[in-house]
Design goal:
By secondary structure, the chain is α+β, with helices and mostly antiparallel strands. Helices cover about 30% and strands about 35% of the residues. It has one domain: Roll (Thiol Ester Dehydrase, Chain A). Bound molecules: coenzyme A (COA).
Length: about 160
Amino acid sequence: MEKKVSESEVHSEIIVLPADTNMFGDLYGGRLVEWMDNIGSITAFKHSRMKVVTGSIDNLFFLSPIKLGYIVHLHSFVTFTTRSTMEIEIDVSSENVTSGTTSVTTRAFFTYVALDENGHAAEIPQLILENEAEKQKFNDGEIRSEQRLQLLKNIKKSINSID
Ligand SMILES: CC(C)(COP(=O)(O)OP(=O)(O)OC[C@H]1O[C@@H](n2cnc3c(N)ncnc32)[C@H](O)[C@@H]1OP(=O)(O)O)[C@@H](O)C(=O)NCCC(=O)NCCS
């Protein structure tokens, strides 16, 4: 079975409360990553309809601070799939509630692995690419996937050499 990108795309908005910020009134980076992983996993569940785990998070750069009381906009969608993995792009921006000004905060790629009831990697639906933008994102995702797997291989090798 194949699925469209739009079938698992998620938009979400969250207001930043005092418990989400440090003493300067800025949103904790870790809290934002938690929200990103949450929305990314919802997309992965909707695409696969299986148990999923977060396999990796690509580089994360925070480009603009998010302040107490701002609205955080999160947008999550599948860009690339392999037999059992989904690369999910998560775009984050913030909105100043009084001025209405918006700023881009980050864009990151999370990879989720679908698992069967025995905890083994399971086959997921592949993507139906409906337009040029989705095809471009898929091609870019394929390149990132190769780089990610090489990095994973290197990390495993270096960990094994410590043991
Ligand atoms: C991710 C995990 C399931 C992979 O297990 P594994 O035994 O290496 O799985 P496999 O070798 O069968 O790989 C399955 C697929 O995932 C990919 N993969 C494996 N580890 C990956 C990782 N860390 N990041 C991205 N992709 C990964 C493989 O390339 C393979 O892709 P395919 O669809 O092309 O076949 C396992 O390492 C794990 O459980 N990690 C912990 C996850 C976790 O706890 N996350 C945080 C809390 S949710």
